[in-house]
Write a structure and sequence with these properties.
6-stranded mixed sheet, membrane, cell cycle, transmembrane transporter activity, cell membrane, AAA+_ATPase
């Protein structure tokens, strides 16, 4: 599903974020990406949806070498890779429905198909009743669930999340994690960067630890492994 081969990323300011990283992530796996701040986790994630490009090495997503695709083809890649951010990134002047629909409208789908699909994913995240609500009318957990619905609306087979519970209280964080687990059980590969020690230790998924731009630990049923 995902493979990085000897990937190195050096930013223009000379910072070497990743050093010769090689890893494979199989279909339907749930993977936690852990490590101290500045370790290279966000760079790792950005490379997978081509927000950043590697300085050297190859990255394969669904069998396609995304380091070789043209920039104009990047939107097509992102239809198979959903992304959820810590700060939600919802458009404030759009309702929940409109925020989710926006991801489909750019693909020029028929309006009837868009409406049906948007309501399906809002139902999946238990927010069908908030379809007409604006972001400022929603709690942090509800905003995050709208963001997850938006990431899922194109039916991607990979879901990437960058600190998705970072702004949420513990109870809401668990609700969001239960949602991610349900999505994963339906066959979607989930990769999540997180500092949430309790969640990682409780859920016993694959853990990839990055330090100084290198993978230092890769365990199928791992623990967080760092002190708070």
């Amino acid at each position: 599903m995902i493979e990085l081969q000897d990937v190195t990323k050096v930013y223009p300011n000379g910072v070497k974020a990743l050093h010769n990283v090689s890893v494979k992530i199989e279909k339907s796996q749930f993977v936690y990406l852990v490590g101290p701040s500045g370790a290279g986790k966000s760079t790792f994630i950005k490379l997978m949806y081509r927000e950043e490009k590697p300085t050297s090495g190859n990255i394969y997503i669904n069998g396609q070498n995304i380091t070789r695709i043209k920039n104009r083809h990047t939107p097509y890649l992102r239809r198979s890779v959903g992304v959820v951010f810590q700060d939600y990134k919802l458009l404030p002047r759009l309702t929940s429905f409109e925020n989710v629909a926006f991801a489909l409208e750019v693909t020029e789908r028929p309006s009837r198909e868009i409406k049906k699909r948007v309501m399906e994913v809002l139902d999946l995240v238990n927010l069908k009743h908030k379809a007409r609500s604006y972001p400022h009318e929603l709690s942090g957990g509800e905003q995050q669930r709208v963001a997850i619905a938006r990431a899922l609306v194109n039916q991607p087979n990979i879901l990437i999340a960058d600190e998705p519970t970072g702004n949420l209280d513990p109870d809401t964080s668990w609700e969001i994690m239960q949602l991610f687990e349900r999505i994963n059980m339906n066959g979607t590969t989930v990769i999540m960067a997180t500092h949430d020690k309790e969640i990682v230790n409780a859920m016993k998924k694959r853990v990839i630890a990055i330090e100084g731009g290198r993978i230092v630990r890769d365990e199928l049923r791992g623990d967080y492994g760092y002190e708070d």
